[in-house]
Structures are given as structure tokens and as C-alpha cells.
């Protein structure tokens, strides 16, 4: 297992994401909630969910950087890990959306699958581009020195705030993710974690204060602004310094990639099934979240038993199983 406090944070990020999709990203999705606490909380947490996933990706990469590893082999492994499940799981999701009337959003122009990113699978597509950036930075030693890293980070934040890139093949998402990934990488590489209570509490209260102010203002959610970036970075810094320990969150975090890829299949199924009988919000929320997480974990374990399926649908390295015949010598 990677660093004790990373796995629980992955579990927390999974729960935040699953709750987001169960409630719905907008009033015409999910549970069709247009106002109230759940709507406001779900919108405000947009400043933390994907930044946390990306921050953790950068942090984990820094624990296992490319080093002297071949750039081609490294990116090939990332393509297998990220792009292959995007093509399999993402395409399956898009086809189901296209053919089932009860889904919230129809996939338009199915022939443009993954050229225009599909639903939440934009993240893995964009993260691959981020890795391409990072490998370039590593090869030219742009992020191994603190001062050079700071320059690259500032450039990434300026791009985040000023460039409106096209959505095609995840370019827009990559520019959105890059500062958070670099921040996670930098916190780990330059040992910026702090055990000081003051630092932990200060980052917590700043993040809560800004989020609360945003909630009171009630403005439109724009995740690509300087304020959004600051909130995301501060929240991630607080959470990594929290040294969170939870066997429950760790149990989810161990399967975070599977939960990310497949939770929507189970949350949507639960919503459509329960919707036949009742529209109780509490029931929808609890069953939807449980079904999405538990179902994804069960599916992950099932897929992992097959070398072919685990490669195609989870991006794991293909390991051919060998049958060893034992001979008895009399």
C-alpha cells in the first residue's frame, strides 16, 4: 500500500465523487434537486473533488517518478492504465446512455467518442496528457529544482486562469488538472507537508471560509478561476497534512480506480430501480452511494481474476497465467 494517509484520502475522494453523481451535477441530472442544502453542498464541493483526485495522482507519482525509466515505456504503461479503460468502460457507458431512455444525458455524436470526452472519463483522458507534460518537464530537469519548479507551477496556474482550451481529446481538462498535479508532486518531492497544528488549522479555516463565502454569494460554479484554484490547493494541502487514518476509507481507497471507472453504472441502476417505487431523497442517496461503491468493488475483484479483463477494463498489466504440471515420480 502507498503511504498510509494516501489511501484514506482516495477513499474520501471516491465518496465525494459518487455523492456528486448520485445527486447530479445540475438540477436536470441525478435526483433532479434544484435547491436546498444538498444542491448547494454538491455545487460547492466541485472546488475540491477533482482537485483532490489530481493532487493525489501527483503525490503518488512523486513517490514513484520516472527516474531513468524509458519515457516511451512509461507513457505506454500510462496509456494502458488510463486510455485502455477509457476506451472500454467509457465506450460501454456511452453506448448504454445512447440506447436507454431513462438516462439523464444522451451521448450525442457517438462517432466522436473520446475525441469529445465521455462523461467523467474526461479525467483519465486529460490525466494522460498531464503525464506527457510531466515527463517533458522531468527530462529537461524543470521540476527537480525548487526555483525551476516554482516557475513551471506559476506558468501552469496562469494557463489555468487564462486559456480556454478546446475540449477535444481532453486538452481543456489537462490544463485544468495540471496545477493540482504539480502541487501534489511538489508537496511530496520538496517535503512541504507540515506537522504543525497551526498550519493544519489555518489551511482548514481558510478553505472553509472561502467555500462558505461562495455558498452565501450563490454565484455560478466556475472551477477555472483564481479563487477556485486557491480553494482547491488549500483544501488539498489541509487534507494531506491531516494524516487521515480510517480503515473504512482505506477499504474504499484500495479500489479507488475501479470505483471511479464504474460507479456510474451502479448509481444509475439504483436510481432507476428505486424511482419505480418512490422518490424519497434520503433513500435514493443512501442506496445510490452504497450501490455505486459496493458494486464497483465487487466488479473490480471480479475483473481482477481474469488477466484479459483486468487489462482491458482496469488497465492492469497483462500477466499470462501458466499452468504447471506436476509429475509424480514413483
TrEMBL record:
Q: Name one GO molecular function term.
A: O-acetyltransferase activity
**Swiss-Prot/TrEMBL keywords:** Cell membrane, Membrane, Transmembrane, Transmembrane helix
UniProt topology in membrane? Multi-pass membrane protein
Q: Where in the cell is it found?
A: Cell membrane
Record-linked InterPro entries: Acyl_transf_3_dom (IPR002656)
Q: Where are the transmembrane segments?
A: 7-24, 44-61, 82-100, 120-137, 149-169, 175-192, 204-221, 227-244, 256-277, 283-303
Offer one Pfam family short name for this entry.
Acyl_transf_3
Primary place of residence? membrane
Biological process, per Gene Ontology: enterobacterial common antigen biosynthetic process
Which segments constitute the Acyltransferase domain?
9-300
Q: Which GO terms describe its cellular component?
A: plasma membrane
Q: Which PANTHER family match?
A: O-ACETYLTRANSFERASE WECH
Q: Which family does it belong to?
A: Belongs to the acyltransferase 3 family.
Protein's name in the database: Glucans biosynthesis protein
Q: Which organism is it from?
A: Iodobacter fluviatilis
